[in-house]
Task: inverse folding
């Protein structure tokens, strides 16, 4: 067995069939002229980068950031995307937990349902009291629920989202530890905040009294997929998460592009106080509640995250509780309570909510079904709730190469490798 | 500078084109200009002609004569109004305009907002393919006296407060390293959707960063490209006092920045030892001081506030007195605080231990800033140093540990090692190379200092009856392993330090300070090719290069364990220190023995072992009787003898698996098994090299079995694991191939046993393990490895698992 010299390799690369010992699609100078072949199945951040981030499929769920055991993945503040900030050891964990690559998210949803799901999930239309409903997007249910739980001492805080002060409509993750914080953070933010990857940082800033906090994590279904998957394997980053709340979602947006789209409708983003997307319409309102824009949400397609097209998890099946507007009257939130943890949280907060059970959530299921069919038609790989949870690099390449979602070469200038020990 | 800069929209350009008042310049590659088409009437002045693309490190301005020729060929006059565009969002076109301005262009300078893309966005416009064939002009270019260039001293002054220094690179780059005090304004911040933002938005952006019309503004990036776009934009907005730092961050980093001076740094750390310790140091100097401390041998551990201290032993040599000091320091200071387990921090070694490394250094953990001055005082008293044991400098010089002892030795390397060490120690210039720089010198014929994996490896050679060395360059293990190239260069022992300096100078000039992923010397060797590299190197050396007549390396020696005869008839004993770890008190005890029985010398080997030289017969017998040698035996079992590991998860931020305790446990178990299986006597050493992660600190590529930490996951469980490769052999320039990934860690001993059994059964008579792995196909080897017994459920989530 001699050192592998790629230039002498006889097996010419074929699409979808990575050569043994030679990985990746970009020209990583480190890969040239190497005298030892790489292990089959070895995955580096670079592979994730090329297959997901450079391929413009990243949904900014931050699962990889949370998963990396050496904290090698940071968040590029400008792009809001993961980026390598330290040496990568090639442990593959980021890949394993990325719902756009190594994590077969539909299998994960199936397994969590089997392992944690209530026999009969309950669906409600709910509305909080006026202050919370006022602050919230729909019925203010999330705001009220979390406030109750924090005040009852069940939770020490909740990772939610708030509009940044310096940029209109751009969200950032915050740790709310009081009702006031939550009221301030009420309402939907239509871009990702990478909250799952910021928990440590938020905790360090927050100075909670306890060393072993119980937090709620609120976010898009994909972020909840990553968080619950890490938890299934007892990985440390999920330890503080005691409750997950998914915001039902057909797509999230790229902040810059969203602003540009709004501007193209002659809407000044600075003037927009809130956005809402329901029934296929995007509405922007100003601080007085007057509509600045009502437009078909399809007109905003180009501003959506491309990776969202591959998502069939509209309702956020892995979450303890999912919330959305679909299927409830204006001013109410549709909530699905799915696990014991969700049920006990819901009951605990019941006094703060006006609830009506929805026995047959047809509208919700209809939208979920439409979303699933659409995702399946776009997803280059098979959608398989019974497949194994892990997707290898080679399988990914087989399914994605030759499609418009295939890996893109990495720009080496983006990778800053630090070296520490040797 | 008088030329006016403006940014012009495609529609305004269109209007001006109709009146033919401007010369339009396309800076894309010539091929694109010709084949894909261009804005009608544009001439081609490709960026690679007015910038030097081959070098990320050099200044970017072309020579004035070259630039004049270029513009003359393009039919441009000094008074023409120029409009430049490209397809990269603006920087290269801006770069062109800036270059013209610096060289005294008198006409106005326009940048097309949004470049070619914006031009083409309007469906009515199109590409032209017809190229004008301009008549050459007599363009003259001379650097303007008042060109807005600023040099390093100027930037230093600016940093001191007389200007706003602006970093135009990405936030990630800015976070990674920057000129102190610089504000961040990425050049793309000025754009939205590829076009210049509205003036109000721009003014806000600038004002937020303190960039105002009353201030002097100094711009930089990495290669003076991106800053050009910001420069043009600022001038367009009417900011007059804008300057740029042509050398950019590249130059800044390379220059001997005071914060990278090891001597200065050591003085600072000494100060904090007595004044507030770690927290005060970090408060005053910032978190990034932790990265720089490597330069003086301090690595911040994953446990905050504690450091690993690396002490260098050039050529592996220590006096007994030095060794005793190291042992005592470890025993006293390398102690874990109670919250990390105190005296029981490690189940095998307890507390107060040290590690011998594969580069003949000694490492110890849990060192606090408060204790460091005391430690350095003790070191100074016996002539030890931690300086440049780590960091991007000439590292500890590795030398053949049997130098001066071996009967077959041709050159005594001790003075060579000493000279190289002394020449670079504390030298501020060489303390800041693009990346670490490893040198080894071997005097015997067995390459025991591993020339193949060094940036510079020297092994014995002869020329016209003179003894000296032959040089190999560009080897290394991490980030794509590469065996060093022989450049057919003979050097005399007295020339070695000059050669190292020449190589370091070449490295400084050609290596990239920024792309740390690809800046080991070996990337330069690969890029130049060995011959061209040799030529280039010769231009840095102050002696003429010669070829050796004959090289003398015959063989490769794995280790020096056991009792060996010296040239003078006395003996040396190589003691096996499994994984290199030893109690500080034991190390001190050993140094006493070396003092009492030997000549007061101890040597470290590149296998994490220890050698005691100069023993007369009686003394040898006495040493062999010592109880300490039961644990650190000259005659260990084959696995114990061959085990090498890095620090691992216990202390390393990156380590995925715990290495040292596991390795010692395995070695014992495997030696017992080898004994039972009757193969123990067939092998001197079976070399299992285990790294905690895929960095190559334990040199897994050189082992019979190479392992590196991983994780695995199935549908229900996850746990720690290892990648496995077989058959590394530096003697034949063979690195392992990684054969199988993610073997659950507890399965590894069974895999080792199965492989040894297969070797025993399949190999031909006299065939070494490496030879066997080489003649067996990777597919067959994989099958041997993966046919493994069912595993138990993995333990997950334990602290040191
Ligand atoms: C990107 C996105 C797309 C959505 N698409 C749909 C849809 O198509 N159909 C539908 O029925 N519902 C959709 N929703 C959910 C809906 O907008 C409401 O969030 C939900 O109904 C809850 O309303 P509420 O008044 O009860 O919550 P609130 O009381 O307003 O509380 C919501 C909580 O979520 C936090 N939050 C808001 N945005 C984010 C974010 N991006 N990341 C993390 N935390 C956040 C807030 O800080 C707040 O704490 C979407 C939500 C998002 C964020
Ligand atoms: S070290 Fe981090 S970045 Fe690298 S493969 Fe592992 S999880 Fe991914
Ligand atoms: S999709 Fe999520 S896990 Fe995958 S790369 Fe993006 S942020 Fe990371
Ligand atoms: S559509 Fe799916 S992938 Fe996109 S943000 Fe929503 S949950 Fe995430």
Result:
């Amino acid at each position: 067995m001699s050192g592998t010299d790629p230039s002498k390799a006889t097996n010419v690369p074929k699409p979808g069939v990575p050569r043994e010992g030679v990985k990746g699609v970009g020209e990583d100078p480190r890969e040239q002229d190497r005298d030892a072949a790489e292990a089959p199945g070895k995955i580096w951040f670079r592979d994730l980068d090329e297959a997901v981030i450079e391929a413009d499929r990243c949904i900014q769920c931050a699962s990889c950031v949370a998963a990396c055991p050496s904290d090698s993945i940071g968040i590029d503040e400008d792009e809001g995307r993961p980026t390598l900030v330290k040496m990568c050891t090639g442990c593959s964990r980021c890949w394993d937990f990325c719902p756009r690559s190594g994590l077969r998210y539909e299998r994960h949803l199936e397994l969590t349902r089997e392992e944690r799901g209530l026999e009969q999930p309950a669906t409600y239309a709910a509305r909080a009291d006026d202050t919370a409903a006022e602050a919230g997007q729909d019925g203010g249910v999330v705001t009220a629920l979390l406030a109750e739980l924090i005040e009852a001492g069940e939770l020490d805080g909740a990772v939610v989202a708030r509009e940044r002060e310096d940029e209109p409509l751009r969200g950032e993750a915050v740790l709310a530890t009081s009702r006031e914080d939550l009221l301030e953070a009420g309402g939907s933010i239509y871009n990702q905040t990478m909250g799952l990857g910021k928990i440590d940082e938020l905790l360090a800033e927050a100075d909670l009294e306890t060393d072993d906090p119980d937090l709620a994590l609120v976010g898009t279904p994909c972020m909840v997929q990553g968080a619950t998957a890490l938890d299934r394997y007892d990985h440390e980053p999920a330890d503080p998460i005691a409750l997950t709340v998914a915001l039902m979602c057909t797509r999230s947006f790229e902040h810059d592009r969203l602003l540009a789209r709004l501007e193209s409708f002659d809407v000044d983003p600075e003037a927009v106080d809130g956005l809402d997307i329901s029934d296929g319409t995007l509405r922007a309102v100003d601080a007085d509640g007057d509509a600045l824009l009502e437009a078909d949400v399809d007109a905003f397609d180009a501003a959506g995250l491309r990776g969202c097209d591959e998502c069939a998890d509209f309702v956020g099946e892995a979450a303890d509780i999912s919330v959305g507007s679909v299927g409830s009257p204006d001013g109410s939130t549709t909530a699905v309570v799915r696990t014991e943890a969700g049920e006990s949280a819901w009951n605990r907060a019941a006094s703060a909510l006006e609830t009506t059970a929805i026995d047959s959530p047809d509208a919700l299921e209809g939208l979920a079904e439409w979303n699933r069919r659409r995702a399946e038609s776009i997803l280059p790989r098979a959608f398989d709730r019974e497949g194994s949870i892990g997707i290898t690099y080679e399988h990914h390449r087989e399914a994605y190469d030759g499609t418009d979602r295939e890996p893109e070469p990495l720009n080496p200038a983006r990778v800053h490798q630090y070296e520490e020990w040797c | 500078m008088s030329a006016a800069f403006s940014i012009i929209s495609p529609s305004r350009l269109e209007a001006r084109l109709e009146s033919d008042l401007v010369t339009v310049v396309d800076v894309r590659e010539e091929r694109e200009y010709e084949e894909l088409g261009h804005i009608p009437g544009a001439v081609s002045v490709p960026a690679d002609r007015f910038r030097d693309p081959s070098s990320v490190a050099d200044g970017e301005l072309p020579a004035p004569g070259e630039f004049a020729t270029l513009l003359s060929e393009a039919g441009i006059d000094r008074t023409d109004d120029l409009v430049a565009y490209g397809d990269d969002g603006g920087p290269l076109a801006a770069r062109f305009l800036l270059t013209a301005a610096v060289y005294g262009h008198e006409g106005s300078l326009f940048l097309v907002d949004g470049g070619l893309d914006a031009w083409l966005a309007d469906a009515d416009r199109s590409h032209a393919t017809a190229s004008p064939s301009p008549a050459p002009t007599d363009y003259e270019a001379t650097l303007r006296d008042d060109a807005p260039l600023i040099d390093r001293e100027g930037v230093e002054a600016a940093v001191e407060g007389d200007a706003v220094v602006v970093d135009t690179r990405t936030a990630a780059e800015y976070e990674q390293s920057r000129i102190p005090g610089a504000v961040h304004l990425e050049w793309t911040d000025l754009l939205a959707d590829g076009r210049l933002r509205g003036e109000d938005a721009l003014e806000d952006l600038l004002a937020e960063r303190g960039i105002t019309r009353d201030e002097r503004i100094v711009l930089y990036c990495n290669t003076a490209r991106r800053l050009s776009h910001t420069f043009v934009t600022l001038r367009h907005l009417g900011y007059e006092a804008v300057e740029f730092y042509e050398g950019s961050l590249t130059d800044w980093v390379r220059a001997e920045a005071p914060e990278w001076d090891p001597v200065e740094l050591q003085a600072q750390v000494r100060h904090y030892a007595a004044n507030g310790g770690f927290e005060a140091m970090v408060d005053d100097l910032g978190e990034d001081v932790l990265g720089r401390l490597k330069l003086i041998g301090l690595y911040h551990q994953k446990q905050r506030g504690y450091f690993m201290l690396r002490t260098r032993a050039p050529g592996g040599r220590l006096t007994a007195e030095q060794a005793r000091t190291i042992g005592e320091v470890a025993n006293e200071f390398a102690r874990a605080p109670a919250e990390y387990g105190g005296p029981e921090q490690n189940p095998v070694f307890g507390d107060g231990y040290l590690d011998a490394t594969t580069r003949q250094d000694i490492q110890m953990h849990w060192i606090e800033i408060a204790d460091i001055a005391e430690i350095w005082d003790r070191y100074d008293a016996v002539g030890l140093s931690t300086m440049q044991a780590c960091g991007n400098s000439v590292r500890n010089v590795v030398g053949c540990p049997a130098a001066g002892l071996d009967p077959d030795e041709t050159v005594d390397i001790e003075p060579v090692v000493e000279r190289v060490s002394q020449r670079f120690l504390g030298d501020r210039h060489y303390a800041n190379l693009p990346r670490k720089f490893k040198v080894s010198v071997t005097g015997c014929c067995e390459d025991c200092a591993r020339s193949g994996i060094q940036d510079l490896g020297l092994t014995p050679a002869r020329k016209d009856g003179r003894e000296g060395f032959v040089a190999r360059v560009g080897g290394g293990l991490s980030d794509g392993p590469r065996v060093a190239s022989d450049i057919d260069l003979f050097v005399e022992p007295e020339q070695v330090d000059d050669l190292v300096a020449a190589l370091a100078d070449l490295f400084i000039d050609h290596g990239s300070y920024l792309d740390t992923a690809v800046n080991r010397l070996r990337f330069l060797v690969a890029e130049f090719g060995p011959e061209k590299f040799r030529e280039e190197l010769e231009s840095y050396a102050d002696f003429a290069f010669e070829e050796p007549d004959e090289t003398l390396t015959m063989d490769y020696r794995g280790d020096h364990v056991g009792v060996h005869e010296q040239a003078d008839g006395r003996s040396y004993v190589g003691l096996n220190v499994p994984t290199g770890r030893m109690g500080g008190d034991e190390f001190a005890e050993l140094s006493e023995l070396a003092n009492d029985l030997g000549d007061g010398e101890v040597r470290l080997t590149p296998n994490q072992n220890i050698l005691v030289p100069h023993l007369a017969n009686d003394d040898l017998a006495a040493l062999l009787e010592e109880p300490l040698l039961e644990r650190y035996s000259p005659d260990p079992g084959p696995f114990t003898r061959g085990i090498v590991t890095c620090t691992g998860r216990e202390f390393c931020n990156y380590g995925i698996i715990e290495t040292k305790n596991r390795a010692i446990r395995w070695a014992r178990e495997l030696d017992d098994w080898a004994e039972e299986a009757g193969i123990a006597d067939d092998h001197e050493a079976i070399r299992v090299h285990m790294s905690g992660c895929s960095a190559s600190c334990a040199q897994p590529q050189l082992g019979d079995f190479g392992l590196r930490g991983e994780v695995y996951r199935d549908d229900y469980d996850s746990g720690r694991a290892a990648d496995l490769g077989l058959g590394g052999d530096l003697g034949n320039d063979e690195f392992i191939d990684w054969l199988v990934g993610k073997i659950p860690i507890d399965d590894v001993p069974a895999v080792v046993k199965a492989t040894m059994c297969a070797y025993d059964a399949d190999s031909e008579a006299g065939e070494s393990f490496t030879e066997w792995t080489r003649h067996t196909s990777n597919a067959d080897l994989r099958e041997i490895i993966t046919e493994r017994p069912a595993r138990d459920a993995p333990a997950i989530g334990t602290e040191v698992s």
